[in-house]
C-alpha cells in the first residue's frame, strides 16, 4: 500500500543529533531527519543501529549529547513538557500495570497529560483496537498481541499528533500483525503522523510513505519507497544454456553479464529498479536467438526492499546513495 502525499510541512526536524554514553559508545552520530506532517514513516535498521535511542531522544527519555530537535515548529529542549503532551509512544517492552483493567489503565494514561476524562474518546479507541470487549479484563490476562494493543491505546489516549511505534508488531502472529497494520493506517487517516521502527521489512513495504535506513547511529538514506526501488533496485537473471560457451560473445559486451566456469550459465546483474533490467534481459534473450545460442531456462529476480536494506546495512551500496 503506497500513498503518494503532496508536499507537506515538517512536524519534526532533527539536526546533528548525537548521543554518546559514558562508556564511549556512540548510539547516534550526527543524525539529520525531517518527518512530514501526516505521513507514515518507517525507520529500518539492525539491532543496535540507534532506532530506539532516536525515539527516546525525541520523547524525552534520552538526553542527547548534542544537536537540536524541533517538534511542531518549536524547540523540544526549551518547551519539552508542553510539546511532549502532543507526542505518543508505544515502546518495545510490554511494561504496563499488569493488574489494572484495560479501561482504567488507558483512562489513567490520558490523565497523566493533564486532560480531563473523556469516556467516549476512550471507548472509541478501545473499539478501534478491538479491545472494548476486554475493557474490564486485567492486562496480565491478555495475550501478547492484545497487550501490545493496550500499549497503543494508552499512547493514543491523550490524542497525540505525532505517534512513535517502536517495533509495534514484534512477537505477534502474521494475522494479528496485518490487523494492526490496518489500525495504524486508520490512525494516519485521523490525522496522526506515525513513525514506526520494525524488523519486518514487509511492514515498511505495506504501510510506509517514506523509509529511512539507519546503521551504527547514522542515517544512510531517507526517501520514498518507489524512489528507493528505482535508485537501488536491481534485476538478477540466470540463463541456463543448452550447450556450453567457451567465452562470452562480443554481442553481449555492453551488458553486465558474466559466464560461469563451465560455460553453461550466463548471469545478468543490472538495471535501475524501474524496468531497465527486465528490458535488458529481454534483449539478451533475443540476441541469444540471433546468435543461434539455445537456452533451456531463465531464472529472473527483482530486488525487494529487503534486498536493498540488507545490502545497505552490510555496507555494499553506500557509493550509490549520493
TrEMBL record:
GO terms for molecular function: ATP binding; ATP hydrolysis activity. The keyword ATP-binding applies. Pfam families: ABC_tran. Keywords: ATP-binding, Nucleotide-binding, Transport. Residues 12-241 form the ABC transporter domain. SUPFAM superfamilies: P-loop containing nucleoside triphosphate hydrolases (SSF52540). This is ABC-2 type transport system ATP-binding protein.
Amino acid at each position: 500500500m503506497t500513498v503518494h502525499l503532496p508536499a507537506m510541512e515538517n512536524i519534526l526536524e532533527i539536526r546533528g543529533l548525537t548521543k554518546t554514553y559514558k562508556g564511549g559508545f556512540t548510539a547516534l552520530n550526527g543524525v539529520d531527519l525531517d518527518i512530514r506532517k501526516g505521513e507514515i514513516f518507517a525507520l529500518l535498521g539492525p539491532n543496535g543501529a540507534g532506532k530506539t535511542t532516536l525515539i527516546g531522544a525525541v520523547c524525552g527519555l534520552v538526553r542527547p549529547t548534542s544537536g537540536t530537535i524541533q517538534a511542531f515548529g518549536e524547540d523540544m529542549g526549551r518547551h519539552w513538557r508542553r510539546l511532549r503532551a502532543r507526542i505518543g509512544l508505544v515502546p518495545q517492552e510490554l511494561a504496563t500495570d499488569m493488574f489494572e483493567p484495560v479501561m482504567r489503565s488507558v483512562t489513567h494514561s490520558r490523565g497523566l497529560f493533564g486532560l480531563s476524562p473523556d469516556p467516549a474518546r476512550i471507548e472509541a479507541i478501545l473499539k478501534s483496537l478491538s479491545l472494548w470487549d476486554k475493557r474490564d479484563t486485567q492486562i496480565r490476562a491478555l495475550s501478547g498481541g492484545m497487550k501490545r494493543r493496550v500499549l497503543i491505546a494508552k499512547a493514543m489516549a491523550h490524542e497525540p499528533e505525532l505517534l512513535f511505534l517502536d517495533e509495534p508488531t514484534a512477537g505477534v502472529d502474521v494475522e494479528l500483525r496485518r490487523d494492526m497494520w490496518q489500525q495504524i493506517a486508520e490512525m494516519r487517516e485521523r490525522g496522526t503522523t506515525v513513525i514506526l521502527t520494525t524488523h519486518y521489512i514487509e511492514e515498511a513495504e505495506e504501510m510506509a510513505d517514506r523509509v529511512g535506513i539507519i546503521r551504527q547511529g547514522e542515517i544512510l538514506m531517507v526517501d520514498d519507497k518507489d524512489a528507493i526501488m528505482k535508485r537501488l533496485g536491481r534485476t538478477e537473471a540466470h540463463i541456463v544454456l543448452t550447450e556450453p560457451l567457451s567465452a562470452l560473445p562480443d554481442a553481449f559486451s555492453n551488458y553486465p553479464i558474466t559466464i560461469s566456469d563451465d560455460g553453461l550459465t550466463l548471469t545478468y546483474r543490472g538495471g535501475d529498479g524501474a524496468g531497465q533490467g527486465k528490458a535488458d534481459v529481454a534483449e539478451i534473450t533475443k540476441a541469444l536467438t540471433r546468435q543461434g545460442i539455445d537456452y533451456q531456462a531463465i531464472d529472473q529476480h527483482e530486488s525487494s526492499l529487503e534486498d536493498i536494506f540488507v545490502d545497505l546495512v552490510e555496507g555494499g551500496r553506500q557509493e550509490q546513495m549520493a
